[in-house]
């Protein structure tokens, strides 16, 4: 495996709907000089986004990722996911069991989560076999999954490849203590 070096870089981006530039810090991994491959990792775990709490606000909020209102089921998923503490993980199955739903439905709701990284830290959701799973619509060996792993590692979780090893407290445990 090629050697890597880690550096930090601040990038500025802007969107057509927001003329103000947004600064974010990304980790940059550069593989050996031979390969000349640079991978930027978006590992922000601090940004808190607006999260509607009242029924009125929830009905009128439009998801900027889909340009559609968020469904009651999606809010149920987001409410539970928001309970997962920093440095811990839960599984799609644990969330779906709490909601009496299916893991794929939970995954689809999280795929379009507009409230990440906080207050809805969907990067803290992994598969029940302790694999990292997908992230923001990406799966497998994608940049999005690399970003998810980087966020979890920054919170203190340990991985061996794509397999979850331990929470920040050293325990290999899935968070399931959801308050309904």
UniProtKB/TrEMBL annotation:
GO biological process terms on file: methylation
EC number, UniProt record: 2.1.1.63
Domain Methylated-DNA-[protein]-cysteine S-methyltransferase DNA binding stretches: 72-140
Record's keyword terms, sorted: DNA damage, DNA repair, Methyltransferase, Transferase
Membrane-spanning ranges: none
InterPro entries registered for this protein in UniProt: MethylDNA_cys_MeTrfase_AS, MethylDNA_cys_MeTrfase_DNA-bd, MethylDNA_cys_MeTrfase_DNAb, WH-like_DNA-bd_sf
Catalytic activity: a 6-O-methyl-2'-deoxyguanosine in DNA + L-cysteinyl-[protein] = S-methyl-L-cysteinyl-[protein] + a 2'-deoxyguanosine in DNA; a 4-O-methyl-thymidine in DNA + L-cysteinyl-[protein] = a thymidine in DNA + S-methyl-L-cysteinyl-[protein]
GO molecular function annotations of the record: methyltransferase activity
Top EC class for this record: transferase
Family: Belongs to the MGMT family.
UniProt-recorded name of the protein: Methylated-DNA--protein-cysteine methyltransferase
Species of origin: Phycomyces blakesleeanus
């Amino acid at each position: 495996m090629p050697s890597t070096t880690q550096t930090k870089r601040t990038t500025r981006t802007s969107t057509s709907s927001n003329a103000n530039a947004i600064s974010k810090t990304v980790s940059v991994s550069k593989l050996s000089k031979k390969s000349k491959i640079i991978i930027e990792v978006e590992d922000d775990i601090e940004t808190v986004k607006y999260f509607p709490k009242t029924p009125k606000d929830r009905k009128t909020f439009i998801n900027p990722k889909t340009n559609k209102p968020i469904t009651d089921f999606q809010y149920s998923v987001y409410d539970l996911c928001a309970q997962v503490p920093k440095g811990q993980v839960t599984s799609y199955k644990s969330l779906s069991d709490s909601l009496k739903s299916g893991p794929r439905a939970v995954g689809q709701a999280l795929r379009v989560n507009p409230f990440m990284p906080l207050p809805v830290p969907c990067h803290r959701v992994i598969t029940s076999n302790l694999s990292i799973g997908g992230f923001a619509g990406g799966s497998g060996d994608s940049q999005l999954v690399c970003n998810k792993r980087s966020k979890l590692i920054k919170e203190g979780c340990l991985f061996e490849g794509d397999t979850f090893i331990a929470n920040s407290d050293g325990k290999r445990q899935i968070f399931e203590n959801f308050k309904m």
